[in-house]
Amino acid sequence: MSSAPATRARKLPAERRAEIVQAAAAIALEGGLEKITLRAVADLLGVRPGLISHYFPVAEDLVIAAFVHAVSDEREALVPEGGEPLERMARLVSRVESSDARAISRLWLNARHLSRFSPALDAALEEQESFDRDRLTALIDHGIAAGVFAPADAFTATVRIFIAIDGFGAYANNTGAFASDAYWRFVTDAAEWALGLEAGRLREEIDALDR
């Protein structure tokens, strides 16, 4: 007695779209936003390019969705909810300064460059930066209320820390020439200053994470 051939379950549109965006984000983190093509995403998923264009008729929309997906995931890793302010800040800075953050640093650099030529990407980039600023400002406000941080104000501290992160990330493609703490602990030192912490306090908290 023969059985009917198994049929492949059709994915719901929302599931398929999410799968496409996730694949595009993986491509962007590996090789840059310019590497996102219908063919590249289709090959990664093992489907026809026509399926990708069905969900993203405009390729730029897929590029933007991939960027947003990647940086949104990183935001959750950088500033997770819950926990004491100093420990949360230590985890943020530790991740930023680690090799694990190199790919996302490159992606931000890549997006900033391409946004000069894409108003839609520029708008998405600004929106994501705004989300990051709000999340970090809320963390710093928490630390101020707890008596742990003592900056001039939370927003100023946020801006200074992000400038340090951006400056550090600008060397994501060329870190070989920087072998000292002056580079690898730059964000730590800048965050201590911006938050009104005594010198070495944040370093001490970061180093304790690895013990």
Task: Summarize the topology.
Layout: H1 13-31, H2 38-45, H3 49-55, H4 59-78, H5 85-97, H6 102-114, H7 119-145, H8 154-169, H9 181-184, H10 186-195, H11 201-209
The chain-level structural class is mainly alpha
- Give the end-to-end Cα distance, rounded to a whole number of Å: 63 Å
Record field, number of beta strands: 0
* Low-pLDDT runs: 1-7
Work out the radius of gyration.
Answer: 21 Å
Shape category: elongated
Query: What quaternary form is this?
Result: single chain
Instruction: Estimate percent helicity.
Output: 55-70%
What can you tell me about this protein's structure?
The protein has helices at residues 13-31, 38-45, 49-55, 59-78, 85-97, 102-114, 119-145, 154-169, 181-184, 186-195, 201-209. Helix 5 packs across helix 11 (201-209). The relative contact order is 0.11. Residues 1-7 have low confidence and may be disordered. It is mostly helical and 211 residues long. The longest helix is centred in the middle third of the chain and has 27 residues, at 119-145.
Keywords:
single chain, 211 residues, mainly alpha, disordered N terminus
Q: Brief overview, please?
A:
The protein is built from 11 helices and no strands. The chain has 211 residues and is mostly helical.
